[in-house]
Write a structure and sequence with these properties.
The protein is built from 2 helices and 4 strands. The chain is of the alpha+beta class. Helices cover 24% and strands 20% of the residues. The protein starts with a helix and ends in a 9-residue tail after the last strand. It has one domain. A 4-stranded antiparallel β-sheet has the order 1-4-2-3. 15% of the residues are buried.
Length: 85
């Protein structure tokens, strides 16, 4: 059996597609970092939080948003049509 460069290239391209993972989500706004806040002040400065599993939710402040492990980042202001958490 004769192996041609075209066959090697085609095999490599086919296998390369199997290992690809989806692109990482784009994080906008302020990213939540560890350690997460344990206590937040009673400040009302609404933010729209981006959830790790997808979607958004309103929180009363950035501190309250990042205290929730389900949140990856937040932006100032309420989300469109969200309810405050």
């Amino acid at each position: 059996m004769r192996v041609t460069p075209a066959l090697i290239l085609a095999s490599g391209l086919a296998l390369a597609g199997c290992n690809s993972s989806p692109p990482a989500p784009v994080i906008t706004g302020t990213q939540c970092t560890d350690p997460r806040p344990q206590v937040c002040t009673m400040e009302y400065a609404p933010v729209c939080a981006t959830l790790i599993k997808g979607g958004t939710a309103d929180y009363s402040s950035g501190c309250n948003a990042c205290a929730d492990d389900a949140v990856s980042s937040f932006e100032q202001g309420k989300c469109d049509g969200g309810s405050l958490l």
